[in-house]
From TrEMBL:
Belongs to the binding-protein-dependent transport system permease family. The chain crosses the membrane at residues 83-105, 141-164, 254-275, 296-315, 358-379, 403-426, 489-511, 517-537. Keywords: Cell membrane, Membrane, Transmembrane, Transmembrane helix, Transport. It is found in: Cell membrane. This is Phosphonate ABC transporter, permease protein PhnE.
C-alpha cells in the first residue's frame, strides 16, 4: 500500500473551498457584464472586413520599417529631444520635491521630540502633503494639455508637465523615505540644538541616501516613457512623430519609431539598473563593477553633464517662461477654470465618463492579470527557447506606453473605449507577466515538492501549492497596476479612446474652461479614490 493510500484520498482531489471558489467565480461574472457594456467591448468587430482591410494595409507597411538616412536622422534628433525633455523635467521636479519633502517630514521638526505637534506646523505639513497628492494625482498628459494652451506647442509644456507631476511623486516618496529612516541620529541632533537642515544633512540623509538616489534614477527612467506620451499633445520628441505617423497611417514610420523607442527604453532600463546605488560597489563580490566611491562620482559627473546638455539643447526660452507677462498670462488662464461647471446635466455626463474610465481601467487590469499569469507560467519554466521568447514578448509589451498602443489600435478598432481597454490590457500584461513570473519563481518550494513526491501532476502542483502561496502577492501586484491604470485610462481619450480623457480633450479644444475644470476635478477624485481603495486592499493582503 502506498503512503498516500494510507493517508486516504489525495488532498488535491478534495477541495474544501470549492463552494467559495464557485461563489467567487459567479461574482466575477456578475461584475464583468457591466464592465463589458460600459467599455463597448466587442472584439469580434476587429474581424469585420472593413477593420481587417485597414489593419492589413497598416500591418504590411509596419513589417517594412523606414530606414532611409533622412528619416533616421530626424528620428534620432527627436530621440535626444525626448531624453532631454525627461531629464530637464525631472531636474525641475527635484527642485520642487526637495523643499516640499523637507517641510512635510514631521521627523525633522523640533516639536516632534515632545510627541505632540504644534498647531501651525501640523496644519502646514498637512497642506503640503495635500499639495503633493494633488500634483501627482493629475496625470502628466493633463498638465501638458493645459500648459500647451498657454505656452504653445513645443517641449516647454512637456517639461513643466513632468516637473509638476513628478514633483508630487518625488516629494511624497522622499517624505516617506525620510520618515522611515532611523530616527536616533536626527533626534540626537535636534536635542543638541541643531536646525532642520543640519538634522537632515548629518542625521537623516546618511542613512537613506542610497534609497533616495535609487528612486530618483528610477523616476528618470519612467520620465523617458512619459516624455514620449507627451508628444501626442504637441510637446515634441518621438511621441509627436509617432502621433503624426499614426494619423497618416504610415506603418513603416510607426514601425521604425517604435523600434527606436523600445531600444531607448531597454537602454534606460539597463543604465538605470547600473546607476542605482544598491548595485554599486559590487567589485568586492566578484563582479566587474567599479568601486562604490568611484561609481558615485561617475554618477554625479554623468548626471551633471546630462542635465546641462539637456537644458542647453532644448529649444525653450527659459526667460520667457518666468517673465512677468508669462506669469500674468498663466494667472489669467487659471482664472478661467473657476468656478467649475456644476449644472446637473453636465455632471451627469461627467459621471458617465468617470464610469467609463473606471470600467476601462478595471477590465483592462483584469484581462492583463489573466494573460499575464498565463505568460508568467511560460516565463517561469526552466531555461529554454519558449522561456526566452516569452520574456522577449513581455518586455516588448511593457516597453510601449498605453497611449501608443491605443493610437495603433484605433486604426482597426475605431474611436471608443474598446481600443483604450485593449491598450491598457496589452501594456499591463507585459508589466504583470514579469512581476508574476518572479513571484511564482520565488514561491516556497516545500509544499510543491511534497505534492510532486505524492504523485501530483504539474498542473495540480501549480493549482494547490504554487498559486495559493503566491496569490497574495499576485493580487497585490494587480491592485497596484489598477491604481496606475486609472491614471492611464483617464488620458487615453486624448486620442479618441473614450472616458474622461475624451471629454477633457473636447472641452479644452473648444476653450470651455469651466467644463474642463469639472472634468479635471472628476479625474482627481477618481484617481484618489482608486488609490485609497487599492492601498487599503494591498495592506490587508500583505498582513
Amino acid at each position: 500500500m502506498s503512503p498516500m493510500s494510507a493517508m486516504g484520498a489525495e488532498p488535491w482531489r478534495r477541495d474544501p473551498a470549492l463552494t467559495r471558489r464557485i461563489g467567487l467565480g459567479v461574482a466575477v461574472l456578475v461584475l464583468l457584464w457591466p464592465l463589458l457594456v460600459w467599455c463597448e467591448f466587442r472584439p469580434w468587430e476587429l474581424l469585420e472586413p472593413r477593420s481587417l482591410r485597414a489593419a492589413l494595409r497598416f500591418g504590411v507597411q509596419f513589417l517594412t520599417p523606414r530606414v532611409d538616412a533622412e528619416f533616421l536622422w530626424m528620428a534620432l534628433a527627436d530621440t535626444w529631444r525626448t531624453v532631454a525633455m525627461a531629464t530637464v523635467g525631472l531636474a525641475l521636479a527635484w527642485v520642487i520635491a526637495v523643499p516640499l519633502a523637507l517641510l512635510a517630514t514631521a521627523r525633522l521638526s523640533v516639536s516632534s521630540l515632545t510627541g505632540r505637534m504644534a498647531a501651525l506646523p501640523a496644519s502646514l505639513r498637512w497642506t503640503l502633503r495635500t499639495l503633493l497628492v494633488v500634483l501627482r494625482s493629475v496625470p502628466e498628459l493633463v498638465w501638458a494639455l493645459m500648459l500647451v494652451r498657454v505656452l504653445g506647442l513645443g517641449p516647454g509644456a512637456g517639461v513643466l508637465a513632468i516637473a509638476l507631476s513628478y514633483g508630487g511623486m518625488l516629494g511624497k516618496v522622499y517624505a516617506e523615505i525620510l520618515e522611515s529612516a532611523d530616527a536616533t541620529p536626527t533626534q540626537a541632533l535636534l536635542r543638541g540644538g541643531a536646525g532642520r537642515l543640519q538634522a537632515f544633512f548629518f542625521g537623516t540623509l546618511p542613512g537613506c541616501a542610497d534609497e533616495l538616489v535609487s528612486y530618483t534614477v528610477y523616476r528618470w527612467e519612467c520620465a523617458i516613457r512619459t516624455s514620449v506620451v507627451l508628444g501626442f499633445v504637441g510637446a515634441g520628441g518621438l511621441g509627436q512623430q509617432l502621433d503624426n505617423a499614426t494619423k497618416m497611417f504610415a506603418g513603416a514610420e510607426v514601425s521604425t519609431i517604435l523600434l527606436i523607442f523600445m531600444a531607448l527604453v531597454a537602454l534606460a532600463d539597463r543604465l538605470s539598473a547600473w546607476l542605482r546605488p544598491s548595485r554599486m560597489g559590487a567589485t568586492e563580490h566578484g563582479t566587474d563593477r567599479p568601486p562604490r566611491r568611484t561609481s558615485l562620482w561617475l554618477l554625479l559627473a554623468a548626471l551633471a553633464v546630462l542635465v546641462v546638455a539637456s537644458f542647453v539643447s532644448l529649444p525653450v526660452r527659459w526667460g520667457d517662461l518666468l517673465s512677468a507677462s508669462a506669469l500674468s498670462q498663466m494667472g489669467a488662464f487659471l482664472s478661467e477654470f473657476f468656478p467649475p461647471q456644476l449644472a446637473p446635466a453636465f455632471l451627469m455626463r461627467v459621471g458617465q465618463g468617470a464610469l467609463e474610465t473606471l470600467a476601462m481601467s478595471a477590465l483592462g487590469s483584469g484581462l492583463a492579470a489573466v494573460a499575464g499569469l498565463a505568460l508568467a507560467l511560460l516565463a517561469s519554466r526552466p531555461s529554454g527557447l519558449l522561456r526566452g521568447a516569452t520574456w522577449l514578448l513581455l518586455n516588448a509589451l511593457r516597453s510601449v506606453p498605453e497611449l501608443v498602443w491605443a493610437s495603433i489600435l484605433l486604426v482597426s478598432a475605431g474611436l471608443g473605449p474598446m481600443p483604450g481597454t485593449l491598450a491598457l490590457a496589452l501594456h499591463t500584461t507585459g508589466v504583470l507577466g514579469r512581476l508574476m513570473a518572479e513571484a511564482l519563481e520565488n514561491a516556497p518550494a516545500q509544499t510543491a515538492q511534497a505534492l510532486r513526491w505524492a504523485g501530483a501532476s504539474r498542473w495540480q502542483v501549480f493549482a494547490y501549492a504554487t498559486l495559493p502561496q503566491a496569490a497574495p502577492q499576485l493580487l497585490s501586484y494587480t491592485l497596484y497596476r489598477w491604481e496606475n491604470n486609472i491614471r492611464a485610462a483617464a488620458v487615453l481619450g486624448v486620442v479618441g479612446a473614450g472616458g474622461l480623457g475624451q471629454m477633457l480633450s473636447v472641452h479644452l479644444g473648444l476653450f470651455q474652461m469651466r467644463e474642463t475644470s469639472t472634468v479635471v476635478l472628476a479625474m482627481l477624485v477618481l484617481v484618489m479614490l482608486v488609490d485609497a481603495c487599492s492601498y487599503a486592499a494591498r495592506r490587508k493582503l500583505n498582513r
